[in-house]
């Protein structure tokens, strides 16, 4: 026993020494260098803004770090700090351009250290970081993110706001040298003038006016230079679904579309797509805030899914995007986790109604039955038709009404919304409409009172895309139309209908049962509280009215620490969080170009909430 233990210990020293000589793991180098740049950048900003910090022992030690500009002017220190912070973010994301900038700036910083402070320690640190970058240059292969020249305007707005905020700190960082007592308006005016390179109304004793002036001027120059660079650099537009790719996806859906109820939503034209090498499978995605979001299962033959998933992961790695999948099925989750090593977490359940088993009879359906009968007695009638059976005039009226009844400024939906109504390529979609009785009060869209839109789910199914209703109509219009669609389904050859997605449905259901533990009850209470702002409990209860079967849906992610970022990106994609410029500064929204004269893009009134895909305002309990 002792011999074996001694043998193990004897091998520890060489192994540790070997690891020490080999240096950090290659995959950790970007994080190490990026963290160092962040540290030095924050110190440079503090050194330029706060005079006392420049006299502290901490700053005396920090000046020997590469990039620290101790003897230089405060203006250069602030500018260098901001640039280093921007550079650090790119290094952590493995960006090739950030690597090139670091390879240039690190030697320059080392030369500056030696020339102005004769610091060999600073040169050694710079050389060590430079050696890491050169040795592990293969870790910095990430391509640029999709971008347009609107990024320049966003940069100008954000940098200007940040410069004004930092400028106010600079103006107030010398309280003992201010002449008089300038108010907030004079301080703000001085900052704006200083950013433009002019002298402001605030005066200081001694050389402080030059320090403040140069610091503000440097911030203004930095804002101007970065905005000019972003405006003049070549564009890399975001991925779009081109006509040829859409046709390939439609061919795959024609052969394998019955497998996933979310398959048709892959035809959104604001998504990109990667195909397997054989072309028999594909993954559609959108990049939001550095997260590469796929939705639903891969399209096509299950045997070819691994090839498409491999292409998806390669694309994410090439751009240093965070890979994630929203709303995949249990089968899809198993394939994703097996092929990529990612993890999966149950997100909620999809409500599916089997048409042959649906009936309004029985005590469990009494509330729905009474609601439908009451609306029918009030004179409303329903029509369920294929999109191809509606005239262009009717489609225009439906699109206009759905857009007007949306209830939000921005469209919602991504993973379980098509984003358009009435496109000629979507002639197999189904539209259910509710109409007021003849002779009744007519609204701006005639007798139209509510709209439901379904997309195909293989040859014998359909998935709910959106629900919209006139707020002036009677409550229960959505229930009326769902029942009408289920009753009309056999004539359309439909045997199964996918309704809304209920997020955290199992937690809500188990938490309200007798015997639920304190943890589950607390979790359910939190979900009920969040339902004040998100349709969580209301969608679950609305779906449960129709006695569906529940199919779980999952989110696939790399690490637990990625979940907050993925959740935020998903909320952006679904339209719940909008990072947009002020309305006065926005241009006209970009339209997807028509792929061909006979394949036009209709307006996109369809959207879904992040908490409940394929449900829009006015659904469920809210409608009732």
Q: Can you tell me about this structure?
A:
- This protein has 624 residues and is α+β, with helices and mostly antiparallel strands.
- It has helices spanning 2-22, 29-49, 51-54, 57-62, 74-92, 96-117, 120-135, 150-171, 184-195, 208-232, 243-256, 305-319, 330-340, 366-377, 392-404, 477-488, 505-511, 518-530, 537-544, 563-574, 620-623, and strands spanning 272-275, 281-288, 291-295, 299-300, 322-328, 343-354, 381-386, 430-435, 448-456, 461-469, 496-503, 549-557.
- It is built from 21 helices and twelve strands.
- Strands 1, 2, 3, 4, 5, 6, 7, 8, 9, 10, 11 and 12 form a twelve-stranded mixed beta sheet that branches.
- A hairpin with a 2-residue loop joins strand 2 (281-288) and strand 3 (291-295).
- The chain starts with a helix and ends with a helix.
- Mean pLDDT is 76; it is low at 1-13, 64-73, 581-613 and 615-624.
Topology:
Blueprint: H1 2-22, H2 29-49, H3 51-54, H4 57-62, H5 74-92, H6 96-117, H7 120-135, H8 150-171, H9 184-195, H10 208-232, H11 243-256, E1 272-275, E2 281-288, E3 291-295, E4 299-300, H12 305-319, E5 322-328, H13 330-340, E6 343-354, H14 366-377, E7 381-386, H15 392-404, E8 430-435, E9 448-456, E10 461-469, H16 477-488, E11 496-503, H17 505-511, H18 518-530, H19 537-544, E12 549-557, H20 563-574, H21 620-623
Parallel strand pairs: 3-5, 10-11
Antiparallel strand pairs: 1-2, 2-3, 2-4, 5-12, 6-11, 6-12, 7-8, 8-9, 9-10
Helix pairs in contact: 2-5, 5-6, 5-10, 6-7, 8-9, 8-10, 9-10, 12-13, 14-16, 17-18
